[in-house]
Amino acid sequence: MENINKNRLFVASCLALLVTSMTFAIRAKIEHVFNVEYGLSKVEVGWAFGPAFWGFTIAMFVGGLIIDLVKTRSVVWSAFILHFVGIIVLIIAKDKTTLFMANVFIGLGNGAVEAACNPLVATIYPNNKTQMLNKFHVWFPGGIVIGGLLSYFLIDQMGLGWQVLVGLLFLPLAIYGYLFFGQTIPETERVSSGVSYKDMLKNVGAPYTIILTVLMMIIIASMGGVNVNFSSPVTWGILALIIVMVFVEGRVINKITLLFPFILLCMFLTASTELGTNQWINALLENKGINPMIILVVITGIMAVGRYFAGPLVHRLNPTGVLLASSVLSAIGLYWMSISVGPVITMMAAIVFALGICYFWPTMLGFVAEYIPKSGALGLSIMGGAGMVATSMVLPIMGGWLETAGENQALSYMAIIPVVLVVLFIPLYFYMKGKTSGSSSAH
Length: 443
Known about the structure:
This protein is an all-alpha fold. Helices cover 80% and strands 0% of the residues.
């Protein structure tokens, strides 16, 4: 990699992710504008925001499948163009259709960023993938903090129009485009190490079952988030069928370890714990005596700092140890928030929760990059895309809990998810103990 400017590519990737994360904060701010000023119902706004989630997933899946065919450079510039068009359409949006189309472009652009940049970071830093993926993903919570603060100062304090806020996205967009321009972008690690496309699919364990399952989840999410009934035998029958299909495709047909499907299941739960809670933070904590947006800024700020300094922790505990500790803290934080009274105790509980979810997303990606490297860019894209679509499915479930059981009970229900993760990560920790990077993708 003599002709590759690693630092420039890494900074460009971080700024691309900054654009992605700022759109999440901006979307939360302008929801009120489209509801009150433009007369859209909350249902219409929710529908128009939907592509930001499932479009993200589609772009990650497609990007992961084709990145080695069209090259990483093509996916990077696709993200740039989609972001550029999406920002323009969002600025001129005044109805649900235009808002929907803006989020189609932005959602696809956001997914293309992760589809390209996750494997790019893993490729240019082969000896410390998890640490650098954590540093890269600093800019997801970091962008939410920046977007939230800009929203507060520009709109709430200075009284400027929301279009000015959206227009600021052009600044990091232009810089990351400039930094990528003219640079040699390496092929993914899978290609450079000589692993075939067929082997990449095989190392996902049960690629066709997984892809069909996530596509089904996208369809459900795009239909407005059909509430999954876990008390129904039909739901459990479908889940049992998926498990059987994964086993048959993975063990009987491909004759390979089911480590990837297992960690993918965990990704559904870690993403739901992190993003599901943060998306509903306003409703969950509105009666705790403190502005929930302040808590969100504190949570995402802690996540940004924690991810930046993740190296020593990952080195000491290894990825599975970090994931296990994160699950324990997340469960404690969620349950503590459910019983907290007053701003001080609520903030303390939120800090524990922030420390818990801090390393989930990047460490899950780092685990796949380190221990299942032959799954290539597809493995990383499936992980990220599945995490996002799982969030889009859990949001209406949480909404139902909020309406029927109240905020505190909803938080206590959410605490069950990281408890399940503890149960899953304990055997994973002992299974992975002593294994070196790449060793677990063997037959």
